[in-house]
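Q: Fold this one first, please.
A: Sequence and structure below.
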Amino acid sequence: MDVVNQLVAQGQFTVIKQPLGFIKALQWIFAIFAFSTCGSYSGMFKMSVECSNRSESDLGIEVEFEYPFRLHQVYFDAPTCKGGDKERLFLVGDYSSSAEFFVTIGVFSFLYSMAALAVYCFILEKYRENNKGPQIDFVVTAVFAFMWLVSSCAWAKGLSDVKTATDPERVITLIQACEERENKCREIHDPKVSGLNTSVAFGFINLILWIGNLWFVFKETGWKAALAGTYVPSQEKQPAPDSYAQEGYGQQDPYAGSQGGYQPDYGQQGGYNEDGGYNQGYDQQPTSYSNQM
């Protein structure tokens, strides 16, 4: 319990209230509904074969089938109305590929949504670091959206074929005794496939959720700002503040003259005079050697 309490304390569960986390939670829930309604299905239909000789009739032929709908392996025994013998008949079709593909996508969507929610709640900062997490999330979300489209369409077609193959009126045509007019064959009740219809509906709901989630994940990637020309990568160095203007370069040089630079005072008295002596321009004149002599 201490570990659980620490995880709860460190978690950022407010992200679930945001569209990014809320839609991911819906994906997690509806993925469960999708693969559970399909993967846990089992159905049954019932027929009756009434022979001209009532003792040879079978008025309660039950045919059971279930996921993954390998109907060619489902069999039942029907009377031949000829001396009490029975024949073993098999249903037609194998629709396991579309059903298993649909369930597999549902299971992986469930696992990925759960993992993504854990990342959002506990390591959201690392998820957004350098935008690599959102970019990977966007690619995976796009792949799952496409997979839900393919699997839902494939399973919708497979379910239609399952309904046709398990229609009692169609199955009765496989029984040879029903080809004779003196024998009466009829269906008692059809299989209930409402759960399978719901699974197809959940599949397309998941498709809408994953497509809708693409926009909110795309906003986290930084690609929108990059396309608009306003995105600055985190690795790029920002320009340094203009500190030089505050520390001296923007101030006037006290040694600068009116022309903006240092102007030496060439007006000082100094240089060579006509007598060939060097006048340094000091107030005190050098002592003349002639006076000393």
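Q: Good. Now the second chain.
A: Here it is, same layout.
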Amino acid sequence: MLRTVVCRAGSGLLKHSRQTVPVLWGSRAQQRWASSLPVNTVVLFVPQQEAWVVERMGRFHRILEPGLNFLIPILDRVKYVQSLKEIVIDVPEQSAVSLDNVTLQIDGVLYLRILDPFKASYGVEDPEYAVTQLAQTTMRSELGKLTLDKVFRERESLNANMVHSINQASDEWGIRCLRYEIKDIHVPPRVKESMQMQVEAERKKRATVLESEGTREAAINVAEGRKQAQILASEGQKAEQINRAAGEANAVLAKAEAKAKAIRLLSEALTRQNGNAAASLTVAEQYVSAFSNLAKESNTILLPSNTGDISSMVTQAMAIYGSLSKTPSTTDSVTPETKELTLEANTVSETETNYDLSLILG
């Protein structure tokens, strides 16, 4: 008798446990395959990642775990079969109005999982359909808070808000929404054209700004180049003037030293024997040379009254020289420093005297 019951139970299990029928939900075009309700055959094998809800005499009794399970015929009946796998639901396309009154056509994909088979069985009539409708209404509510530009820029935050809102409502149903992804966002043709025009205008603006920045940088570089060139040129002129002034100073010093040396040699020569005669001869030669150059550079000539009396001119020059030569004899009793200063003064005086003589003879 027992063997006959087990055989009948095994045949019933093979006949009914793996039969599947399409279950419609959401929309007619969308189907999801799930195991049909198994018949109580005393011995039941529950597949992995499935939860079978058992009622005893119409009241919830327990949830069968995957593997071998035993039920009492007639009293126990499998009422619901819940899949514990992650479920992917395609949310149908719907229309929504953004904050700036733009009508959008949007659809998405919802990923969820049943955490509590008891709540999913007795908390809502059709949990998947309820979650789908909740996702559609939540999406319309979230889109109404954003403008069109922010909808495209803040997709991640929009998806996060969707998941948070769905989980708050589906917690009583034993369902956990894992993530929500927006697939497509369709805008009206006119809005799309205006968006394309806006993008083109933005790109033109960027190009104009970049071109102006390039022109500004080029002008700045040119101005900096000119500034550096002027600075370098002024520094070059400064160095040139310094070098020229140093050269002129050195030339003046060299000329003064040469003239001082010449005057010193001349004074030494005059102190020797027959020095006055030599000076007279030199004055006479310069006088004759000056007269030889008359009327070569100008037609106007100023001549002294005694032009032909060379001896009187020489005598006058020698008298001036004699009056100047008497002053050094009084410097013997002074200190060496005073002698040096007196010598320099005599040198200057002799220079002026020679200059005056040249003017007279000239």
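Q: Anything worth noting on the second one?
A: The two ends are 169 Å apart (CA to CA).
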